[in-house]
């Protein structure tokens, strides 16, 4: 099943690249489209909200398809959406293209997580999900820095054309390596909706919202933050994004192991650690070297939460894993939108870029608090 997990990882690489590369290109896109940086930041929020509210609808529409065919349809939608992004002549049409692209995001990661978990023994499920999400982290190591550099050199539209090419490679990998007979979970939509009302399912998704909001309240504006506080130029920002991506990759591996070991205690500990690192980033952001080191550590801790939170939802929502897993991706992206909006609002009212990590730290503490509540309910 290693090649099947690799195929899922290849697709997640493309999806991760198109989601995150916009952060490094935000100033250029804002200038080219004639809008301010906070307005351009809404492209992140629009994408995230489309995942949140559109992906469950897409998952329901594809419910009658077998999982292999459904995943291929979603990759086709991804390719179409990125081509529309590259061709969009103005801000409004680019926003529409981002919304189309995002429709595949939550449904793919939701369904892909279930497929990855079903391919391995029970004690390896979190690690299998982490392997699939490795593509997402490698997108930050390779896709985002090189996509940012390509956008700086040839214009941001060239980056989206490159992502279209990644989409075709991912589609070929899924066709070649994904098993033709995948396990199917039968059940009515009504019964699955009832499962989503369980207290532990709701708390698990709240954790996803808060963890993602903590990340994106700062990461959405990391390029102007580094430029304003540390005087970083485009090449330095690309290097920081590369290190952040390495941190995400290491954190993904760490999160898979923690999820298979002690799930909720790990989530609680990671929340507290994230808050400390983000608070330390406030004074450290004035100098490039300490800021870079802390951003790398931040990446490790932030993404170590992803696999544990995804397996938490799959465990709590037994009997409705397809829908719950997709809705949880929507929860992550609702957090993306909330975080980007909070960061943009703070900038608009005059909060310095260097103080944005305080918002992320508060949200990380909320992760730890909700984690304690859920763990006590378990016990």
TrEMBL record:
SUPFAM superfamilies in the cross-refs: MFS general substrate transporter
GO molecular function: transmembrane transporter activity
Cited InterPro entries: MFS, MFS_dom, MFS_Efflux_Transporters, MFS_trans_sf
Cellular component GO terms held in the UniProt record: plasma membrane
Keyword Transmembrane in record: yes
Pfam family, one: MFS_1
Entry keywords, A to Z: Cell membrane, Membrane, Transmembrane, Transmembrane helix
Segments traversing the membrane: 42-63, 70-89, 95-117, 129-154, 160-180, 201-223, 235-254, 261-282, 288-309, 330-349, 355-374
Location(s) in or outside the cell: Cell membrane
Membrane topology reported for the UniProt record: Multi-pass membrane protein
Domain Major facilitator superfamily (MFS) profile: 4-378
Main location as per UniProt: membrane
Protein name: Arabinose transporter permease
């Amino acid at each position: 099943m290693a090649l099947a997990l690799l195929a899922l990882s290849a697709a997640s690489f493309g999806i991760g690249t198109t989601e995150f590369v916009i952060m490094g290109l935000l100033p250029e896109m804002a200038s080219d489209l004639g809008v301010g940086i906070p307005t351009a930041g809404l492209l992140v929020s629009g994408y995230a909200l489309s995942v949140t509210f559109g992906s469950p609808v897409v998952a329901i529409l594809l419910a009658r398809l077998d999982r292999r065919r459904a995943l291929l349809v979603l990759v086709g939608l991804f390719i179409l959406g990125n081509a529309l992004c590259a061709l969009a002549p103005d801000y409004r049409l680019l926003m529409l293209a981002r919304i189309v692209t995002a429709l595949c995001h939550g449904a793919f990661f939701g369904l892909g997580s279930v497929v990855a978990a079903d391919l391995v023994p029970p004690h390896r499920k979190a690690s299998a999900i982490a392997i699939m999400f490795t593509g997402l982290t490698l997108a930050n190591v390779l896709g985002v820095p090189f996509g940012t550099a390509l956008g700086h050199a040839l214009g941001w539209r060239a980056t989206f054309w490159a992502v279209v090419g990644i989409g075709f490679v991912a589609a070929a990998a899924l066709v070649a390596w994904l098993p033709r007979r995948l396990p199917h979970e039968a059940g009515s939509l009504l019964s699955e909706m009832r499962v989503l009302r369980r207290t532990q399912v709701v708390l698990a998704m709240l954790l996803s919202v808060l963890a993602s909001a903590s990340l994106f309240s700062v990461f959405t504006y990391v390029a102007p933050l580094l430029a304003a506080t540390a005087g970083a130029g485009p090449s330095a920002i690309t290097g920081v994004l590369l290190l952040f991506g390495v941190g995400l990759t290491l954190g993904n591996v760490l999160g898979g192991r923690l999820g298979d070991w002690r799930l909720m205690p790990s989530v609680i500990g990671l929340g507290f650690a994230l808050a400390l690192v983000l608070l330390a980033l406030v004074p450290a952001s004035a100098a490039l070297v300490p800021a870079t080191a802390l951003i790398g550590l931040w990446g490790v801790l932030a993404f170590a939460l992803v696999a544990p939170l995804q397996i938490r939802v799959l465990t709590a929502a037994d009997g409705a894993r397809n829908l719950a897993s997709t809705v949880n991706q929507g929860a992550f992206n609702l957090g993306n939108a909330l975080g980007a909006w909070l960061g943009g609002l703070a900038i608009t009212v005059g909060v310095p870029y260097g103080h944005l990590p305080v918002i992320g730290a508060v949200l990380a503490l909320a992760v730890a608090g909700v984690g304690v509540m859920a763990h006590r309910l378990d016990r």
